[in-house]
Amino acid sequence: MIRLFAAIEIPGTVRTRLSFLQGGVPGARWSPAENMHLTLRFIGEVDEATANDIDDVLSGLHAPAFELTLKGAGEFGGRDPHALWVGVAPNEALMRLAAKVESGLQRMGLQAETRKYAPHVTLARLRDAPIAKVREFLAAHALFDSGPFAVSGFTLFSSHGSSNGSLYRPERRYALSA
Ligand code: 3AM
Which residue puts its alpha carbon closest to atom 9 of ligand 1? Predict the structure, then answer.
C-alpha cells in the first residue's frame, strides 16, 4: 500500500520566504520547507494497481498552466486550532484544476472527497497552542503576499512516516499546457 496525494509544488524561493513566517506560536510543529506544497487532492492509502490507475488518470488530464499567488494566513480548527497555513489569492484556474483531478479520480472509482476544496499551504500543525498566540500569528501575517509564480505542472506525492516526521516524495510529475 502507498499513501498518495496530488499537489502543486511551491518554488524554493517562495518556500524559503514561507519558512521566515514560522515562529512565535508555542506548541506548533513547523513544516520543514521541503515539505511545503499546495494539496490539490488527498488520496490516502491505495494498492499498486490503484496507484497505476491514478497515474493514468492524472497523465490524461488536460488543463492550462497558470499563475498562483499565496496570500494571507489562516487556521483550521476554530476554537481549537490544529493547523496554520497561508492561503491563495482567488484563482479560477486552480479551482478548475482541482475539480478536474477530483472528477477524474471519481470516474476511475475513488470515493468522492466530501469536504469543500480549501486551497492552503500548511505552515504548522498545532497541539494545545495558546489561542492568543495563534491570533497574533494570523494578524501578523494577514497581509502576506508571495507575488505571482508560474504553475506549469502538478505532482503525485507519496507520504511516508507519521504526520510530524512525514517525508513527501514526488512520484510522478504532470505538465499543464502552456
Ligand atoms: O496539504 P496539507 O499539508 O494541509 O494533512 C495532510 C496534508 O495536508 C492531508 O493531506 C496532505 C498531504 O498529506 N491529509 C492527511 N490525511 C488526510 C485525510 N485522511 C488528509 N486530508 C484529508 N483526509
Answer: 42
Average pLDDT over residues 110-126: 98
pTM, rounded to two decimals: 0.96
For 161-175, how does the pLDDT look when each residue is reduced to its tens digit (9 = 90+)?
876 689 999 999 999
Please state, in angstroms and rounded to a whole number, the distance separating the CA atoms of residues 98 and 119: 9
Query: What does the block give as the cell for 39?
Result: 494539496
Reported in sequence order, the residue ranges of the chain that DSSP labels E, i.e. its strands, are 2-9, 28-30, 37-46, 66-76, 83-88, 121-126, 145-151, 153-160, 167-175
Domains of the chain: 2-175 (3.90.1140.10)
CA of 122 to the centre of ligand 1 (A): 10
Closest CA to ligand 1's atom 8: 39
